[in-house]
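Table S2 (text version). Query chain:
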Amino acid sequence: MKDITLYSSKLPGTAKLKQINLDLTKYMEEAENLVAQAERAEITDSDSYAKGGDLISIGRTRSKKAEEERTKLVGPFNKLIKFINSAYKLPKERFTDSRTIVETKMLKWKSAEDKKLRAQAELDRKALEAEALERAALEKTEEAQDEVMDQAAEAGVELVKEADVGLQRGTFGSSTGTKKSYSTEVFNTKWFLGALLAHIDNGNSREVNLDALIDFKKVGMNKFAERMYKAGVRKMEGAKFIESEKIRVY
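Corresponding structure-token output:
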């Protein structure tokens, strides 16, 4: 990486800045003088007409000179700005790389750990069910037996539902969790719209924002994908529903 002093050393010093200030004052005085002449000018004959052209020529020449000086002065500044933008971009990209690298490893571990937790939750759910069957057998009425089994079923569902790594707190004050997002990948529009209409005909009109889906609006498509995925539907004709998970650090 180049040293920033290679660029900053080419910037104007105090003496040069004072000269720039004097030059700017001079240009402004010349410009105001030309404006005053233009305002006083009366174009009444060929001679005054030609003098008007002289005034325009003088203004154009001085304006060009001022622009050349400006371009020359800003060159080193532009190079410095370009260098600074480029120099700071690299560490920013590497900071992002560090997140990407560790995030990939975190998601891989979490996915495997969630599977273990869900498998254990499923075993716990079956154990609850077996225990509920034993308790239900001791009940004297069918209603009491049903209540015992219903309570066990609800508890089992919650066990499986909550079976994931969850929010983890770090030693530097961070809290790490994940956020799930859903999307619809359409690979055949005609098939997808046909399947969608069939889905509506089957009594699912309330969960479908048809306008958003027909226009393929992202928000509507994503909400539909979330409903379908959580209902256990991974695909329909012409499309599939995708669940993605990203690390969220608070």
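Notes on Table S2: Strands lie at 168-169, 175-186, 235-236, 239-249. The first helix runs from residue 5 to 8.
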